[in-house]
Structure formats: C-alpha cells, structure tokens
Amino acid sequence: MASDSDVTIPPKIKAWVYAERGSPVDVLKLVSDVGVPEVKEDQVLVKVVAAALNPVDFKRALGFFKDIDSPLPIVPGYDVAGVVVKVGDQVKKFKVGDEVYGDINEKALDHPKQHGTLAEYTAVEERLLALKPKNLSFVEAASLPLAIETAYEGLERAGFSPGKSILVLGGAGGVGSLVIQLAKEVFGASRVAATSSTGKLDLLKSLGADLAIDYTKESFEDLPEKFDVVYDTVGQSERAVRAVKEGGSVVTIAGAATPPAVLFILTSTGSTLEKLNPFLESQKIKPLIDPKGTFPFPQVPEAFSYLQTGRVIGKIVIHPIP
Fold it and tell me: How far apart (Å, rounded) are the C-alpha atoms in residues 315 and 319?
C-alpha cells in the first residue's frame, strides 16, 4: 500500500517512448496513454516538473548496453526534479508535497528503469533522491544529479584531495563544468586546468579554472606541466595518461580506459546530493544550462539532436512537462 495525496493522479499519462533501438530522433514517439508506474514500498511517485538529458540516454537508445538494459519499450531519462505525490509504506525521508531531485537509475548501465523521467510521473527509490535546494529552480535542479554525482564520485575515485592539481578534459560539458567547480570549492584543489574549444575559454575561467587550454590550438599532453589527477569526460584516456604526474591518477567516464586510467561508472545516490546541497545553496557551485538548452516536452527529439552534436555548454533540460 502507498499513501496518496489530495492530488488526483490520472490513470494514463503522457511520456516519450521508444519500442525499438536506434537514434532517439528516429525511434522516439510521444504517447498519451502510458500507465503510471507502480510505487514499491521503498519508492515515491514524483510529478515530473523538469527532466535533463545526458549522453547515456542516446547511447542507451542506440543499444550500446542492450544486453544489460531493461526490456523495450523504454521511457528514457535519468534525471528528474519534481514533487512527491505518493509515498510507499517504507518511505521515511519524504512526504507528499516535498520538492525533490535525483538520478532515478541506481546503476547507470545495469538495467536502468524501463519507465524513466521523460514522462508526467515517475517512480523512484527514496535513497536516490534529495530535497531540492531552495534557491534552485526545478530546471536548474533537474540539470544536476547524474552530472554532479559523476563529477563528485569520480573525483573521490581518483583520490582527489586538498592541495592537488587537476586537468579536466571537456571543461564546458555537463560533467566537466561541475568537476572544475567541485575540485575548487569542495575538494580544495591547488590548481585547476581545463580544455575546451576557443569560444568557451572564458567560461572555464568563470567556473574556476586557473588555466584554460584551447584544444583546437594546443595538445594538453605536450604541455610541460603535469597534474596529480586528470579527469577525462571526453574519451581521450590514451592522451590523458601522458598528462598525469608519476603516481597520479586518471579517471575517464567515456570510452575504453587506457591503463593506468580507470573507467568510472556512476552509482546514483541521494546522499551525494545531500552532501553537496549546502554548496548549491551558498552558490559556491552553480548549475550550467546551455543558453539554447531548455526545450518544452513536445521538442524532446530536437533536444536529443542538439545533445548529439557534442557542442552543448553544460546541460539540456526538458521543461515544462507537459
């Protein structure tokens, strides 16, 4: 049993669905008679206000990890910000009416939910959620969970600690922009370097980078300066390992890892968001959403097309839903 709110939850809802794998633009369909997901005892039902897209969404649609995915048809989406409308029996942390955010898939690549966040409602375990920081809009909050948890847990995996230096490959992207800020504001980096294309160098500095490297003009691995940690968000670990100090660490979140680099795959947890909420509320860490990056619900295919260009600054968010 689950306790209901005064909110009337419709029997059928709108969601984006694909019944076959392929490029999201080709396979996604907007369906208006999707069932509301069942709420298990450790879950809450969230009225989705905003949802963010991540590269994993299109990689999943293309079938990159289809052997360990949930069965088709799939409602994509990992990131959510919204309002709790129903709570399972065992739920302690949240009540109806709470404004929450999180990445609904505990293991990013291991059977992510068949019913994701590109829908009017989604069900999610309470341990994967946190209360939304009061100063953030739902759009800003939705942009954060997968990216900020990947950034934070990847830095932890790399053994990053105060006084160390770091090079971030892809500093203007969803994860990279948060790695820069976290390294500086949370982990106490002595020096932060980051790569981007020419037009984004000022952005890297505004995020806290001490050194902004234009990858169109210079090869970061040829610089005399080496770093304690290299965080690779773009899939260049064979080059990244040449930019790290002896005994340092390289973590990559894209593509195969060239030793000694290690591939990091996120396990979602609300506790990371809870830990970082004070930094978000004090605005030491700021969400970065692409200036052209907020798309209304009917334009999800266009949002995926833009995401797949690889030129996005920060994040893409879907809002309003519907």
Answer: 13
Cβ neighbours of residue 40 closer than 8 Å, sequence gap 6 or more: 88, 123, 125
Q: Mean pLDDT, consecutive 10-residue segments, the chain of 322 residues?
A: 71 98 98 97 98 98 97 98 98 97 98 98 98 98 98 98 98 98 98 98 98 98 98 97 98 95 97 98 98 98 97 98 94
**C-alpha of 217 from chain center:** 29
The radius of gyration computed from the CA coordinates of the chain, to the nearest angstrom, equals 19
Structure tokens at 261: 């680099």
The two tokens of residue 95 are 């009540």
Please tell me the distance from the alpha carbon of residue 124 to that of residue 205, in angstroms, as a whole number. 37
Nearest to 223 by CA among 239, 202, 207, 235: 239
H or E stretch including 53?
A: strand 43-53
68-73: Cβ within 8 A, 24+ apart: 68/109, 68/110, 68/111, 69/111, 69/112, 70/111, 70/112, 70/113, 70/114, 71/114, 72/18, 72/19, 72/20, 72/21, 73/17, 73/18, 73/19, 73/114
